[in-house]
Predict the structure.
Amino acid sequence: MRRANPSARAAPSRSQNKPMDTELRRAWVEIVTADDYERHMAAIGQAQAAAELTRHIVEAAALPDGARIAIAGAGTGQMLDYLDPALLRPYRLTCADLNPAFLGRLKQRLARAGLQAAVMEDDIERSKLDRAPDLLVATLLLEHIDWRRGVEAIARLEPGICAIVLQENPPGMASAVTPGRPVPPSLAKAMENAHPTLVPRGELEAAFVRYGYLCRDTQTQEVADGKRLVALLFSRTPLRTGNR
């Protein structure tokens, strides 16, 4: 596969300073509650699948002790309920999310798990995360923003490895939320004006190629309603372990 022109990676983004969509921001900061979000994610098996995919991501990345891991869109840290925290202890963690209430719950989970992490409020499209983390993980984040701008923002951070977890639907199901499946009240309210949008996997891979990142590893987990979560690991050089 042809590598991207280095000048394309260096070019300033025309969307870099655009604000996040107003309705999306309001949905995730003012409307969706932590309790409703966690109830829904556990009920459809996505919290559990996210934990298993995170385990795979960290193991496939094969980072040395002390490496920096940034988790963008960390939310409430619900995956820690299903993940052995020993997996993350060797690393320097930064967890970021747009919602300060979610971050409060995340801090509690980190403390219970005995994990040290920098926790920060952050909009990935205009991120203040430190540049060049060894691994950046974004799980079910791009579905809730302009995903192309999200890829640009991630590329500007220049992670050594970038792991994106996407949702893929069964044939014939176009909406991110299963038609007819009940959702908790605050999620239903948020989706009146802010709709999650599935990210086309092929287009995502092509977008990352523009910045010199190739997909080096994939892993899937089945979830409710015939859907699955897919982890894609992107890097500019081959991973130490794991092949696509």
